[in-house]
Amino acid sequence: MGSPAIVGRFAPSPTGVMHAGNIFAALNAWLLAKSQGGRIVLRIEDLDAQRSRREYADKVMRDFEALGLFWDAGPYHQHDRQEAYQDAFERLRALGLVYPCYCSRAELNAQSAPHGMGEKAVYGGRCRRLSASGRAKLEEALARQGREPSMRLIVPAQTIAFDDAYQGLFSQRLDEDCGDFLVKRSDGGFAYQLAVVVDDAAQGVNCVARGYDLLVSTPQQIYLQGLLGFETPQYAHFPLLCAQDGRRLAKRNKDASYDELLAAFGSPEAVLGHVAFVGRLQDEDAPATPEELLRTFDARRMRERYEGRVSIAFG
Length: 315
Ligand code: GLU
Known about the structure:
About 40% of the residues lie in helices and about 15% in strands. By secondary structure, the protein is of the alpha/beta class. The chain is globular and about 65 Å long. The strands form five sheets. A three-stranded parallel beta sheet has the order 1-2-3. Strands 4-5-8 form a three-stranded antiparallel beta sheet. It has a two-stranded antiparallel sheet with strand order 6-7. The structure holds glutamic acid (GLU). Glutamic acid binds near residues 11, 13, 45 and 214.
């Protein structure tokens, strides 16, 4: 038998209109999967019900299509997947690895040890060490406020290392660099780390290209895959497109929104070509379709261009 078919994914969060950073993310995922003869799954990451909007999801899909970034399966929506997340959560609980956390945001800020890379707060473990009576007291106090505890997963003193296709070898000591992490939020919603691992496995995703900001989440996700009996995908973390002030592109950067770029550049191909040029996927600032970019795409060369690079200024 040959190696399994490659399946990559677009995983936009429909919390705003698409900007250059989202286009760059989807293009990277598409190129990495297609360059290996793979397919693309579209998953709408609307786990955050408060911030997600149906109209943003619809618009993102129309924009992908306009850019020629077609998907082969989906769209799947995270809001339809509660049972699958619950099932995984119960399996983790049955392993005795889940405990309630009563900490408020302010308490968390106060107890999280500053992290070396400054990218992730490490939970100090207060609620894992509670006595039964201490736990009961906090449970009661929270219930009086009409609130529920969040749920954390216990991590061991284990190092998780993997070879990122773009960033090379990356490793973290789970207890020191991650800490016990959330699998369920205090509002009852499942946490990103759990949902993404369950979805990637269920949707057959084995090739994940995403932004550098999620590199530090990957060891946690690999740990979860191990506990739940899932295969670990191939990972490739590319630099984030940033505004000139160094902050990652977001809704506030109006001039980087797809519609503004379309108005400025005149065609979807010109927008895609420009994003590809800035993101080092092509050497000239010329209009391009995804298929044209695929002809010269070479993941090994991208590693030379992306390794160790956290961000690229978009302009
Ligand atoms: N939904 C996330 C985002 O839009 C991506 C999550 C992932 O790729 O794992 O940034």
